[in-house]
């Protein structure tokens, strides 16, 4: 297929803007397992977390076909239970969303995952892949719901 991606930090984006809201009490979270340019925030330096990754894509591909595979990682998680999903556009761009729960390292987690593929205007038609993942411990999902909802509702992807 010949498609490749270069990860771009949010503060280095020049032709798209991605907003990751930061509820009160959430701070930048660093972990050596994250690739450089990954933006992560957490409450109390643990779960819940919100992560955004942006890739500048090169090569041609069918966006609809690619989005059919956007939830593959989530769906193969241990004991994954899908709670919600959508293939509706997001902010006018093709998108895929899945929400569910799964087991990881002896804990039950609840996760919201959205992939958006924005494309800049002519003549460049630059494609990006933007992924937002918000994760809570399943037993804290209700208590964290206001913060999680503010992140999900405040998350934006737009052309500059």
Annotation keywords:
single chain, 160 residues, mainly beta, Protein Transport Mog1p, Chain A, eight-stranded antiparallel beta sheet, two-stranded antiparallel sheet, 10 strands, 12% helix, Lipoprotein_LpqN/LpqT-like, signal, Lipoprotein LpqT
Q: How far is the N terminus from the C terminus? A: 29 Å
Name the CATH homologous superfamily.
Answer: Mog1/PsbP, alpha/beta/alpha sandwich
CATH class: Alpha Beta
Total of domains: 1
| Tally of DSSP helical segments | 3
Sheet with the most strands, sense and barrel status: 8 strands, antiparallel
Q: What oligomeric state do these chains adopt?
A: single chain
Report the structural category: mainly beta
Strand content: 35-45%
Determine the mean pLDDT: 94
The shape, in one word, is globular
Our Rg estimate from Cα atoms comes to: 16 Å
Order of helices and strands: EEEEEHHEEEEHE
Q: Give the tally of β-strands.
A: 10
Low-confidence stretches: none
CATH topology: Protein Transport Mog1p, Chain A
CATH architecture descriptor name = 3-Layer(aba) Sandwich
Question: What would a concise description of this structure say?
Answer:
The protein has three helices and ten strands, in the order E-E-E-E-E-H-H-E-E-E-E-H-E. With 160 residues, the chain is mostly beta strands. It has a single domain, classed as Protein Transport Mog1p, Chain A (3-Layer(aba) Sandwich), CATH 3.40.1000.
What is the fold's blueprint, element by element?
Blueprint: E1 4-7, E2 16-19, E3 26-28, E4 39-43, E5 46-58, H1 63-67, H2 72-75, E6 81-86, E7 95-104, E8 107-116, E9 127-137, H3 145-154, E10 156-159
Antiparallel strand pairs: 1-5, 2-10, 3-4, 4-5, 5-9, 6-7, 7-8, 8-9
């Amino acid at each position: 297929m010949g498609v490749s991606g270069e990860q771009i930090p949010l503060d280095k984006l020049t032709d798209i803007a991605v907003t990751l809201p930061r509820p009160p009490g959430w701070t930048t979270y660093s972990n050596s397992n994250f690739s450089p340019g990954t933006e992560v925030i957490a409450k109390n330096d643990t779960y819940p977390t919100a992560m955004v990754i942006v890739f500048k894509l090169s090569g041609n591909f069918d966006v609809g076909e690619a989005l059919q595979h956007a939830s593959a990682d989530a769906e193969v998680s241990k004991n994954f239970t899908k709670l919600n999903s959508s293939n509706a556009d997001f902010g006018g761009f093709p998108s895929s969303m899945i929400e569910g729960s799964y087991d990881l390292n002896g804990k039950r987690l609840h996760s919201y995952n959205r992939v958006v593929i924005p494309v800049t205007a002519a003549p460049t038609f630059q494609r990006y892949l933007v992924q937002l993942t918000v994760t809570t411990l399943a037993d804290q999902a209700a208590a964290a719901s206001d913060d999680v909802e503010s992140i999900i509702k405040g998350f934006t992807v737009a052309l500059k």
